[in-house]
Design a protein that fits this description.
By secondary structure, this protein is α+β, with helices and mostly antiparallel strands. The chain has helices at residues 2-30, 298-301, 397-425, 433-446, 455-467, 472-492, 523-527, 530-543, and strands spanning 35-39, 50-51, 61-65, 72-76, 81-93, 100-108, 114-116, 119-122, 140-149, 152-162, 169-174, 186-194, 199-204, 207-213, 220-221, 229-231, 246-248, 265-267, 284-286, 308-310, 327-329, 341-343, 355-357, 372-381, 386-394. Belongs to the calreticulin family. Residues 273-288, 295-304 have a biased composition (Acidic residues).
C-alpha cells in the first residue's frame, strides 16, 4: 500500500514537472518562425475555433482534460455523432517551396471501433466554402490521420491534386498506409512533406512507418501522373469478333448407347427391410396423457385432437411404419450429352478497345500542392472520448520532434506505465521476454504490404491474443497459419480446385446417400405434417 502511494506521488510530481516544461516550451514554439500554426488547447477553443453551424453536425465539442493528466485537449464528447470544427490560419501556407510538417496528437480514450480521428487541411475559402458551414464537401488539400471501421484500419494520407489540363481535382490515397494503434494511449501522428524530393514520410510516435514518393505509380492510388494512353471510348467490338477459345466439336455425334432419359437414382432392389422393423406401428401416436382443455369450444376451435408424440415402441426398433426401398445412384445415368470442346479456329482473343493518347495526360517534376488556409476536424464516429491535442503546422523537423518530446512523450510514458501496472494487477503482465518479442514480431508482420486486406484480420488476432493470455497460444498459431498461407500463395501462386459438379435432372438433388435405409423418409417431413400444425395451433390457444 505504501509502495503504491509513493508511486502515485512520483507520478503526480512527474506530471506537474512535465506541465511546467510544456508551458515553457509552448511559449517558445509560439514565438518561433518555424511554427506556422500551433495549438496546445491549454486555453478553451471557444472564440478561436469555429464550430460548424451545419445542421448535420450535432456533436458537441468540449475543452477537456486528458484522462489522468492536467493537460487539456479538444474532446469529442458524444457517441454516434457528426463533428465539424475549423481554425483559419493567419495567411495561407504555400507547400511548394519548403518542407512542411503536419503533426497532432490523438488519444482514443474509449477505443475506436468505427470512426475517424483525422484532420483536414483546407484550401482558401475562395475555392467555395465557409468556416461557419464547414462540412464534408469543403475542399481540402490534404487529409491526414487515423480512420478505423470494419475492414478499414489505416492512418490516412490523401492528397487532392488538380489536373493542370482539365482543372479537375482527384483524391490520391497513400497505398499501404500504417495501421492505427489499438490501445487507448495518446499517440502522435506526423507527416513530413518534402516537395523538393517529392518525398512523404509518415511517423507514428516519432517512428517512421511509411515513406513514399508523390510521383511514384506504386505509392499513390490513383497515381498523380495519369496514364499516357487510355482506351478509346468510341471504339466498338466488331460483330464478327469471336472471343471463344474453345467451341463444341461440330463433327461429334452422340453415342448410340447414350440414354439422356436415364434417371439419376433408381430403387435399390438389393435392399432388405431391417430385422425388427415395426410396420404395424405408426411413428407417432396421440399423447395418452393429454386432455381436452375445459374451455375448448368445438364450434369456435374445431374438433379437438390430442397432440402427437414419438411412438415409444420405435425408440428401440430400427424403424416404424411402411418400409420402402431406398434409392441408389443409377450406374447407367449419364445425363444430357454435350459435344466435346475443341480449339476454336476463329478465336481472336479477348477484345479490348484500342489505346489512344490521354487528352488529360500531363507530367510534372513536382506535384502542384494547393495552399493550406485552415485546419479542420470533420468526422463521423461511433465512439466518444476522442481527444485532439497539440496541433502543429511547421517547417522544421527539429521543432516537431521537440514538441513531441515535450508534450506527447511524458503523457505516453505515464499512460504506458499505468497500463503495465493494470496488466500486472489483473495477471496480464505475461508479455515479457520471449512472449513480448513474439508480439513485437507479429505486429511487424502485420505491417507487411503483401497481406493486403488481411492485415486487419491479423491485427485483430494479435490484439486478441494480448488481451486474453489464456488463448494466446491458440491465437498465435492462427496468426502463423494465416500469414504462412498468404506467403505460400504469394511465392508459389496456386489455383482453387473447383468442386465437382453433378448435373441434376428436373431439379432433383442427390439425396440418396443421405436418406435412411428404411425407405428415405425424412424427419423434417413429419415435423411439417398437418397434425403437427394443428397441434401447435391448439397449444397456442391453450396458452392464450
Amino acid at each position: 500500500m505504501i509502495v503504491m502511494e509513493e508511486r502515485e506521488q512520483r507520478m503526480r510530481c512527474s506530471l506537474l514537472f512535465a506541465a511546467l516544461l510544456i508551458g515553457c516550451f509552448v511559449t517558445q514554439i509560439c514565438s518561433s518562425s518555424d511554427s506556422i500554426f500551433y495549438d496546445s488547447f491549454d486555453e478553451s477553443f471557444e472564440g478561436r475555433w469555429i464550430v460548424s453551424e451545419n445542421e448535420d453536425y450535432s456533436g458537441v465539442w468540449q475543452h477537456s482534460k486528458s484522462d489522468g493528466h492536467e493537460d487539456y485537449g479538444l474532446l469529442v464528447s458524444e457517441k454516434a455523432r457528426k463533428y465539424a470544427i475549423v481554425k483559419e490560419l493567419e495567411k495561407p501556407l504555400d507547400l511548394q517551396d519548403t518542407t512542411t510538417i503536419l503533426q497532432f496528437e490523438v488519444r482514443l480514450q474509449q477505443g475506436l471501433e468505427c470512426g475517424g480521428a483525422y484532420l483536414k487541411y483546407l484550401r482558401p475559402q475562395d475555392s467555395g466554402w465557409s468556416a461557419k458551414l464547414f462540412n464534408n464537401e469543403s475542399p481540402y488539400s490534404i487529409m491526414f490521420g487515423p480512420d478505423k471501421c470494419g475492414a478499414t484500419n489505416k492512418v490516412h494520407f490523401i492528397l487532392k491534386h488538380k489536373n493542370p489540363i482539365n482543372g479537375e481535382y482527384t483524391e490520391h490515397h497513400l497505398t499501404s498506409p500504417p495501421s492505427v494503434p489499438s490501445d487507448k494511449l495518446t499517440h502522435v501522428y506526423t507527416a513530413i512533406i518534402n516537395p523538393g524530393d517529392n518525398d512523404l514520410r509518415i511517423l507514428v510516435d516519432g517512428k517512421e512507418k511509411k515513406k513514399a514518393n508523390f510521383l511514384s505509380t506504386e505509392d499513390f492510388q490513383p497515381s498523380i501522373i495519369p496514364e499516357k494512353t487510355i482506351p478509346d471510348p468510341d471504339d466498338k467490338k466488331p460483330k464478327d469478333w469471336d472471343e471463344r477459345a474453345k467451341i463444341p466439336d461440330p463433327d461429334a455425334v452422340k453415342p448410340e448407347d447414350w440414354d439422356e432419359n436415364a434417371p439419376m437414382e433408381i430403387l435399390d432392389e438389393e435392399a432388405e427391410m431391417p430385422e425388427g422393423w415395426l410396420e404395424s406401428e405408426p411413428e407417432e401416436i396421440e399423447d395418452p396423457e393429454s386432455l381436452k382443455p375445459e374451455d375448448w369450444d368445438d364450434e369456435e376451435d374445431g374438433e379437438w385432437e390430442a397432440p402427437k408424440i414419438e411412438n415409444p415402441k420405435c425408440e428401440s426398433a430400427p424403424g416404424c411404419g411402411e418400409w420402402k426401398r431406398p434409392m441408389k445412384r443409377n450406374p447407367d445415368y449419364k445425363g444430357k450429352w454435350h459435344a466435346p470442346l475443341i480449339e476454336n479456329p476463329n478465336y481472336k482473343g479477348i477484345w479490348k478497345p484500342r489505346q489512344i493518347p490521354n487528352p488529360n495526360y500531363f507530367t510534372l517534376e513536382n506535384p502542384n500542392f494547393d495552399p493550406i488556409a485552415a485546419v479542420g476536424i470533420e468526422i463521423w464516429t461511433m465512439q466518444d472520448g476522442i481527444l485532439f491535442d497539440n496541433i502543429l503546422i511547421g517547417n522544421d523537423e527539429k521543432v516537431a520532434k521537440s514538441i513531441r518530446d515535450a508534450t506527447w512523450k511524458p503523457k505516453f510514458l505515464v499512460e504506458d506505465e499505468k497500463r503495465k501496472a493494470e496488466e500486472k494487477s489483473t495477471g496480464l503482465d505475461g508479455l515479457k521476454g520471449i512472449q513480448k518479442a513474439v508480439f513485437d514480431v507479429l505486429y511487424k508482420i502485420a505491417e507487411l504490404p503483401f497481406l493486403g486486406e488481411r492485415k486487419t484480420k491479423v491485427l485483430e488476432l494479435v490484439d486478441k491474443a494480448k488481451e486474453q493470455p489464456n488463448l494466446t497460444v491458440g491465437l498465435m498459431v492462427s496468426i502463423v497459419v494465416v500469414v504462412c498461407s498468404i506467403s505460400l500463395k504469394v511465392l508459389f501462386g496456386g489455383k482453387k480446385h473447383g468442386k465437382v459438379k453433378v448435373e441434376v435432372e428436373d431439379g432433383k438433388k442427390d439425396e440418396g446417400e443421405r436418406k435412411m435405409r428404411k425407405g428415405g423418409n425424412n424427419e423434417d417431413d413429419h415435423d411439417a405434417t398437418g397434425a403437427r400444425k394443428r397441434n401447435a395451433r391448439r397449444e397456442q390457444r391453450q396458452v392464450d
